[in-house]
Amino acid sequence: MAYSESKIIANLKTVSQRISEACVRAGRNAHSVKLCAVSKFHPGEAVEACIKGGQFLFGENRVQEAGGKFPAVFENHPDVKLHIIGQLQTNKVKNAVKIADTIQSVDRLDLIREIEKQASKLEKKINILFEIHTGEESKSGFENIEAVRKALNFISDGNAPHVVPKGFMTMAPFTEDKALVRKSFVTLREMAVELRREFPQFDLCELSMGMSGDFEIAIEEGSTMVRVGTAIFGERQY
Ligand SMILES: *Cc1c(COP(=O)(O)O)cnc(C)c1O
Question: Which atom of ligand 1 is nearest to the CA of 236?
Fold first, then answer.
């Protein structure tokens, strides 16, 4: 598949415009929502095109794929940041911590233990988001607030000094039913409000929610970071 640099840059502009417009409609500052460009299944040249368009934050699902793509990108663009957004197996944490700035898909306490272990070896701090299961279809994410509380207490007790909690992430169900999608985002926001109140020692301001098909609804419901792949890079060829 050939990648058109001008097409990717134009798409990026359109997405940024739609983000700004959604912010205005929601009465929010247009700079209050960050864009994470999801480059999974797209090659390094597509990432390079996106960078030419002014994009510096990327998301990848799979550590192995990201590890093949991003070291070269970082060499040319040291300011680029990578977030891991896909379900993370424990044996991939070592490489994830090497290349990523943030792991958005933290869905269990054991993963935090492993991130701490690997990050401490590298003497690197790593940001995390707690992925929360808010929709019927998605399989990943913490199942309830009590489990997240337990993880936050674990970190608060000094057990993971290299792990920096930054907020929450969710995936809405894949459905045409906009009310269900919205409900999923509202659930994340409300859980965040509760946990910020209980854990003022952490800066849990990030709400990563919204993808190509639903980011405008997510912005209306308080998203601070949208993760957009298809609307920037086109359909993925699996
Ligand atoms: C693939 C993916 C995205 C981007 O999805 P698009 O519909 O292509 O915008 C966002 N978040 C996660 C967790 C993903 O796996």
Answer: 8
